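> agent: user asked for a holo structure of the chain below bound to zinc ion. Plan: (1) validate sequence alphabet, (2) canonicalize SMILES, (3) run complex prediction with ligand conditioning, (4) return tokens. Step 1... ok. Step 2... ok. Step 3 dispatched.
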Amino acid sequence: MPTPDVVAAVILTVGLGLVFAVWILYDRVDALLHDSRRHRTVFHCVKCGTLYTRPRRRETGVCPKCGHSNLRLRF
Ligand SMILES: [Zn+2]
């Protein structure tokens, strides 16, 4: 039969481990969401004037409205 001290120590360790696991999980999910939003490339269609974005960094993007391939906007 474990003493109350050992039981308390085990409960504390498991609790802290759970808190750290959730912390790391949320940190990773947040970084993933933030990266997908940050790594978008902005395009302006020279044919129809539509402003649109595409995921990840790329040099050309096809317009969703007219299908014209445009170069990315540089700021
Ligand atoms: Zn277009």
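> agent: step 4 complete. Summary for user: The pocket of zinc ion is lined by residues 45, 47-48, 50, 63, 65-66, 68 (CB under 6 Å). Helices lie at 4-38.
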